[in-house]
What does this fold into?
Amino acid sequence: MTTDDTMIRHRIDQLIDGLRARDRAAVARLYTPDVVSFDVEAPLQHVGLAAKLANWDKVFTFFETVDYEIRDLNATIGGDVAFAHGFGRLSGKLQGGPQVPGMWVRVTFGLREIDGEWLIAHDQVSVPLDIATGAGVVDLEP
It folds into this structure.
């Protein structure tokens, strides 16, 4: 593993820690100001840090406790850009409600090295599609 690979994995670990702590400021520090996010909810893209944080704010609103995990993360690095992909699952206890197990999704991060720090410039979350029904398949596990 290279130093950059270790730094990228640490950056993703910081995202997980920030989400579990419900620490909006810590999460914000991990993204570029012009981040573009292709999330599972509409619209097709969320552009800019404020839009990305608004998505995480929804998570903090709906969940009393947040857990986020990533499995099978693989990174490819080329100069000052990198991408990493794996499987992610958001779960936790809903506000005033039950514990929910969440669902596994496919997650991809595009990162840029800026002033010696790897920051998330793009992320994409997707679920597989059952072409025959047009429905997302949300019961798969890595």
